[in-house]
């Protein structure tokens, strides 16, 4: 059957690409179908996409390998585009207004789960080093899942939504610092104050410098770009800008998604935003579900099959949820719905998986501790969309913002009802 | 600088992906800028994208490596989306009406350059085996470049455009057969009639069977898909269908681009076409220029630096252009512009490069013969857009179709003027 040389670019292995097409096709079918089903039973579409990933991943069908370099690149494009869209949708001044609230939620939401995780693990007989890895894995919120769900519920521009975005970005920055510290500890290095500052500095500094410089330099640049008459060029150039900032963020020791988010923040006030959003939205329809399916595909159901995993995992789930929900109540002065904020911070997703895999690879975590963390990641990720949904449903009508028509809520997140000209189907 | 573990999916090498973002950013900037420049001097944008590829490729800056698996996948996605768009835009009945014309142009356009190439090479002292490889490399039109240029000129739905698309698809099928025969010859195998039929059968049969079955089964399926309320799902599912057909085409021994084209043909008559086109168009803005830049990046300017390469290459350019232009005049009954048809068949692009690289890798072609083929590919590719532009300009006004408003001409090809709300720039 495969006797033909590939009839395209002369690449090392074009039949491998053909095989990938089958995976992509299955991934598209599964994410869209399960996303639709999730919506029909009143759940956010992202839940269906995560389930599609578990289904296609190594635990069940074994079709989707999230470590495949090409699929990985598509998934990364997905999360970068998602964060770019979230940034585009975020008004820096609105974010600044909730700054102290977000700072408090983010800070407390890192501290409580970390301390709680270490204490609980120690109490259950886990040694100190794996306990620290477990505590660290409990810290960072998966901004992708939270933002996507908030967007689907029309809550991304609400005060609660802004607090969550701000706190989750902060979480990512803190998580980055913790990750580098834990990685050194796991690697056997000594912890020095200089080392911590050396890693924390660029991670925090990047956003500040990028947004400050970008807000001055970029709007005039995009006035020029708007003069380009090539159809579709503006949106793709804006995406290129986001990819370059993502690269820069990685190069200076921050996170790629922070760079993409900063690019969105910078472009938010430009008159070209609507067109940029529309373009990013369409690309997001394709790329973003690949990211969530990849997150799902990293879940190893087999790692849960031990008494210890279930016992410790259950305790970590409790700590993980309680710590973030409590963090939502930490800013006592905040007049929005504190439960909504806290619950939105619960999902750990891909970030928790990185800690778990790092710990397993370094031999610090036993397979059953790895399974426990996996359980924590699964439950916190999957419990959030339905919980948020029911909280938003019980909001007073005036707080029930309609899905934002300005872009992301309606289009980007691939969630709300599609406007159709003809009533077939 | 790179002391941080990547803060995303736990992949083998996320910093490698970060490095790729820089390449993608540079590629977007270069293709959009040079595409715009090309348009401003009255040339098709695709010319600028090809030039951007040469500039970024190994010959000049060395930034863009078209053999990188991820970039290769993006480029393949680009050509698949392009062919899917072309298929969406192609009315099968209109194509059938010009069937015998397209068949004649395609057949003669393979025969003349092949025979001409072998004869010229032999006359210039080249041995038989490399002469056959050279002749084969002269046969297949790069449908991507021709279709894109025709689309930019608003000629994709004209009778000439339909003939070119039909003939170029036929070319690809014949080219596939020739490629497999030449690959066996180069590999030292004997040529048998059974082998030729065995490869030709599926290559030709696939389109017929896929379109026949698909036209019956797919419209009801997409009536169901249209019932999905998830925003943006329809367009992405249609793309998934194209990717699956591309995979299937490859699996049965046809070409991936033929599968994507067939998917477009099948979806053309459905009521969902407009929405599917709009989605493919937006994805195309991102992916398609990556394909053309990759084609450009495969050009090795150094391979041209020999007297033999220039001499033989010059002769091959003459044969390559003359053979295809003559093929345009072969269907004497055709009342459209025969010169337009012939010139549109001239570019060899990526297909010619595959033959050249295969011959070089097998040791059949010397470096200077490889350089000669490279020159043929470069000149036939780069000479076509401006030639077509000037032919279309001299058409009588009634034949000067306005850029088609139904989709591809205006949006997909990224060529015509962007409608802007505000007149800045």
- Report the structural category of chain A: mainly alpha
Helix content of chain A: over 70%
For the sheet with most strands of chain A, the description reads: none
N- and C-termini, Cα separation of chain A: 38 Å
Number of strands of chain A: 0
CATH architecture of chain A: Up-down Bundle
Order of helices and strands of chain A: HHHHHHHHHHHHHHHHH
Would you give the CATH topology of chain A?
A: Na+/H+ antiporter like fold
Low-confidence stretches of chain A: 1-12, 400-425
CATH class membership of chain A: Mainly Alpha
Rounded to an integer, what's the Rg of chain A over CA atoms?
21 Å
Q: Output mean pLDDT of chain A.
A: 80
Q: Oligomer, anyone?
A: homodimer
Strand content of chain A: under 5%
Query: Treating each run of at least 4 consecutive H or I residues as one helix, how many helices of chain A?
Result: 17
Which two chains share the most extensive interface?
A: A-B, 110 and 110 residues
Number of domains of chain A: 1
Q: Could you say which overall geometry of chain A the principal axes of the C-alpha atoms support?
A: globular
